Amino acid sequence: MKNKLSLKWDLETIFSGGSQSVELQDYIEEAEQWLAKFAEQLTPFSKQPQLDQLKQLVETIRQVDIHNGEISAFVSCLTAQDVNDKYAKQLVGTRNQLGASSEKLITQFSFALSRVNDQTWQTWLADEGLKSISFVLNELRDEAREKLPEEQEQLITDLEIDGYHGWGEMYDTIVGSMSVDWEGEQLSIGQLENKLNHSDRNVRKLAFGKLEQVWNEKADLFTDTLNHLAGFRLQTYKHRNWDEVLQEPLTYNRMTNKTLTTMWDTITKNKPAFYQYLARKAEQFNVDQLAWYDLEAPISKDTKEITYDEAAEIIVKQFSQFSDRMAEYAMLAFEKSWIEAEDRPGKRPGGFCTSFSKSKQSRIFMTYSNTASNMATLAHELGHGYHQYVMDEVDQLNQSYAMNVAETASTLAEMIVADAMVEEAETDAERLVLVEDKIQRSVAFFMNIHARFLFETRFYQARKSGFVSTEQLNQLMEDAQKEAYGEQLSEYHPVFWAAKLHFHITGVPFYNFPYTFGYLFSLGIYAYAKTDKENFASFYDALLQDTGRMTVEELAKKHLNVDLEQADFWQNAIDLCIEDVEQFLALTDK
């Protein structure tokens, strides 16, 4: 690997010229031409569907997906790296318009599929040109039957641009304008959030107080964005006669309500083990109970800094223990500057991985500040990148995998690095820090994410009766956090509903439970990996390649021979996390 890696990503190899790229504008024109071709081919097919027309349409849809995917990913990178880039903000509108046009045509396409009689449909799916994408085509056909008449669905899609996605963009605009004074320096929200990992409790408390203050100052604006987002969704569901707000996220994640309920019930039953951890950590900090800003704090003030270059070496080395190909991908991402990790103002908070359909590259965004937690985030995002790296080999139409299985690949990558660090620790003090870092992730998935799920469920219920005030939102959030954490904290984060981007994402609601699913599902895969390292790489790639063409229950049955609607799988996965708690208690019992 290179001696000194760049902390800034290279977007020039995708489209040169940044937000004013001529190459990008040319590609946008190409995308518009493919959309026009899609519309042209769709007209006769909608009137009288024929097999040869369907096969032509499928190829056109592939090209539309590739073009829109390339543009969307690039625009996401531009807006993340510089929240003040006015040209990038203009491109957001172009991206959304392309997406809406595509969505309208896909809606029309799915309704045309739904009108094909069952016997003809089965004959068509047996065709060699369609057999491999039959799951996706069936999914589109079935979804059309759950919706309003076609004209009404098209109207909803048109109204979404300004009436729905516009509210999500408003949230991004407000957050992008926010900064906080820290010892005379203006920090972005992301930079200040990194201070919640600081070893000094006074620093954490001060940072948390400043974050609470700045979020509260804008809270009424975020109350508007959240209420209007939910209101749009609820009106859409009402007209479709969907009684359950979970219907959309469960359909999107290709999972049953029984699987979701079983997962949460099993987690709740096991929470007392993690209460022990929280109580012991409070003892270590010489406080009666932990506060919200202590949850991600290191257990020791003597935390070892891990530079970006060191993190890269560790990640590549540990990936190679399980899969040479994973290590190859990670090295490619580091050496080709696919990662934006620089700690500087003007960046949006958080982290993500996005993939370029045409270029077959990925880009990772985060803010790296030399902590073990940052390294975990880096490994996590590389896991996402590897998932797409493997998916690039399958049909473009089979590459649309849901969030819950996307989070499986990322959390597995994170786990591989975390476990290796624990095993290689040279002292008990070092081991304690690393074990505790692992448990922090379990607590986040079992408690923080659960609080988000409880909040969102109750918020949607309240929103059915009318506008939900800032005060109500704060109360709903604090109540959800108290329940999710078993009242184990001394101080909570009532305005978290405003601070967490995920509540304002318009792509899909309930941007929470898929994280916990992915975490526990990855534990099942990891358990398999440790029993058969020799065959793991091929097993894992095969599983990832199926994530876009079957339900999660089918995926688990085929590759792990488990039933996700039963508690056994979830309990076995949670037991591995409880082993970490037991190790932590033993290391601190002195």
Automatic annotation (TrEMBL):
Record keywords: Hydrolase, Metal-binding, Metalloprotease, Protease, Zinc
Q: Where is the Peptidase M3A/M3B catalytic domain?
A: 198-575
| Residue ranges of domain Oligopeptidase F N-terminal in the record | 114-178
The annotation note on the cofactor reads:
Binds 1 zinc ion.
Note whether Ribonucleoprotein occurs among the keywords: no
Tell me yes or no: is Zinc among this UniProt entry's keywords: yes
* Cofactor entry: Zn(2+)
- UniProt superkingdom: Bacteria
Q: Spell out the family assignment given in the record's similarity comment.
A: Belongs to the peptidase M3 family.
- According to UniProt, the name of this protein is M3 family oligoendopeptidase
Species name? Amphibacillus indicireducens
